[in-house]
Design a protein that fits this description.
- The complex is a heterodimer of chains A (113) and B (113).
- By secondary structure, chain A is mainly beta.
- In chain A, 0% of the residues lie in helices and 48% in strands.
- In chain A, strands 2, 4, 5, 6, 9, 10 and 11 form a 7-stranded mixed beta sheet that branches. In chain A, strands 1-3-8-7 form a 4-stranded antiparallel beta sheet, with no helix packed on it.
- The radius of gyration of chain A is 13 Å and the shape is globular.
- Chain A starts with a strand and ends with a strand.
- Chain B is mainly β and 113 residues long.
- Chain B is 0% helix and 51% strand.
- Chain B has strands at 3-7, 10-12, 18-25, 34-39, 45-51, 58-60, 68-73, 78-83, 92-98, 102-103, 107-111.
- In chain B, the strands form 2 sheets. In chain B, strands 2, 4, 5, 6, 9, 10 and 11 form a 7-stranded mixed beta sheet that branches. A 4-stranded antiparallel beta sheet of chain B has the order 1-3-8-7, with no helix packed on it.
- Chain B is globular, with a radius of gyration of 13 Å.
- The model of chain B has no long low-confidence stretch (mean pLDDT 98).
- The chains are: A mainly beta (113), B mainly beta (113).
- The A-B interface holds A 39, 41, 43, 48-51, 54, 60, 90, 92, 94, 96, 99-107 and B 35, 44-47, 50, 59-62, 95, 100-106.
Chain lengths: 113, 113
């Protein structure tokens, strides 16, 4: 199974400052069709997960442009350009290239300093 | 607007069975593969099962193979998860997920004597 390793697991941030989360895969996530099926989800406290980014860097409808995804192969990053209070929660990466099973990272908890 | 709603959660004894349902609306249900994903209390996300858009193909995570069955009735826009031989470690919020994009609010299954 593909293992996704996120870092850091805890991310204290200051309002208005940038934040970055890393997701490293045990195998390349490049699929034979040329796409890379790496997704980022946000889970706010008490809520269901919400997809933010799919195929590494494509932002979902309604997702603020302060969120961006990048990377290739085995190394991926979610960046928030300027953190807002509503961004508090847990962020998960997930791969849909080598399945079953679809696998998730452990989650990164973003909180305000 | 996509809407997913799970039902069927509750407290069950170890070794018993429980069935979950998820009804979808706001989209053409029969066009999309559907997943079940679970989250144990205070823990991360774990993919459980996937069913193809037409219900002909199913995939499971190893820990539930032979115990859980995913199915769907496209005429009723409904996804199912039949869970047998339940264990304490199956305790979780179970989410239905459309094509790894849209999530329901989840339903809590607690396996306890």
């Amino acid at each position: 199974d593909v293992v996704l390793t996120q870092s850091p697991l805890s991310l204290p941030v200051t309002l208005g400052q940038p934040a970055s989360i890393s997701c490293r895969s045990s195998q390349s996530l490049l699929f034979s069709d040329g796409n890379t099926y790496l997704i980022w989800f946000q889970q706010r406290p008490g809520q269901s997960p919400r997809r933010l980014i799919y195929q590494v860097s494509k932002r979902d409808s309604g997702v603020p442009d302060r969120f961006s995804g990048s990377g290739s192969g085995t190394d991926f990053t979610l960046k928030i350009s300027r953190v807002e209070a509503e961004d508090v929660g847990v962020y998960y990466c997930m791969q849909g290239t080598h399945w079953p099973p679809h696998t998730f990272g452990q989650g990164t908890k973003l909180e305000m300093k | 607007q996509v809407h997913l709603g799970e039902s069927g959660g509750g407290v069950v004894q170890p070794g018993t069975s429980r069935g979950l349902s998820c009804t979808g609306s706001g989209f053409t249900f029969s066009n999309y593969p559907m997943h079940w994903v679970r989250q144990a209390p205070g823990k991360g996300l774990e993919w459980v099962a996937l069913i193809s858009y037409d219900g002909t193909t199913q995939y499971y995570t190893d820990s539930v193979k032979g115990r859980f069955t995913i199915s769907r009735d496209n005429s009723k826009n409904t996804l199912y998860l039949q869970m047998n031989s339940l264990r304490a470690e199956d305790t979780a919020v179970y989410y239905c997920v459309r094509d790894m994009s849209d999530w329901g609010p989840g339903t809590l299954v607690t396996v306890s004597s």
